[in-house]
Amino acid sequence: MDLATFLQQLANAASLGSLYSLIAIGYTMVYGILRLINFAHGDIFMLGAYFAFYLIASVALPWWVAFLVALGLTCVFGVALERIAYRPLRDSPRISLMISAIGASFLIENLGVVIFGGRPKSFASIPLFDTVVQLGSVSVLSVSLFIPVITIVMLVILLFVVNKTRTGMAMRAVSTDVEAARLMAIDVNKVISYTFGIGSTLAALGGILWTMKYPQLNPLMGIMPGLKCFIAAVIGGIGNISGAVLGGFLLGFIEIMVAAFLPALTGYRDAFSFILLIVVLLLKPSGLLGKKQTVKV
Fold first, then answer.
1. Which residue ranges make up each domain of the chain?
2. Measured in whole angstroms, how far is the alpha carbon of residue 297 from the centre of its chain?
3. How much is the pLDDT for 66?
4. What is the reported pTM?
5. Residue among 274, 231, 219 at smallest CA distance from 21
């Protein structure tokens, strides 16, 4: 492989890894607060893309307005999902919450098939994101350059919110000890709603960027990206925002490079994600940046 091809693949890996990171942050935030794997997160990713699609195609909103409205709608949906499917079971055994999350995921997917139809749809072409940019000998779509920048900006904003604001302080308190947070007059329900709202917004942003890079929508499009982003969160250390970003970039890099250097194994690129997960869990069960946790018996 020559240098130009390697740089081309590196650009692709940075773009895909950024998408995984953006979506994985939502997984890791919800787990950090509730110790819950939100299996419906990939379906929220799908809804964000569909909201943007219909706002552009049917309502004829300008693309940037459609994107903002889609993010807002998905945020509201995520908060409502937590209120309806998770909050009533918060004091139940963890397995009940997990079953509710799986049920919510299947419900959203099947409602998507009924409402949106099973036939794939093509996302609108937006010149700003469809331009081919020449960087020396490397040609990339402009959206592939926007994605890492947007991911880094969102990460910086999120870290500022978590570490420097009262809401972020409350999130960290609830993450550490829910009962102690209640004793300190922290509104736990509000904090959890904020967390789901932020995570859902990031998932929607990831879904919109994903469909601009891979411009085809279908109601089941969130299943595999959702699984991979969960893997990215676990690899980085679930509950750790920086770990989710690291895991996403690592997963994107490995997937693209396997396809580039071992083209005969391209059809097995998804399998390499699960192999990487197994290897990391065997060597470092808490993830690359995760903290070791003691289990109370």
1. 23-229
2. 33
3. 95
4. 0.91
5. 231
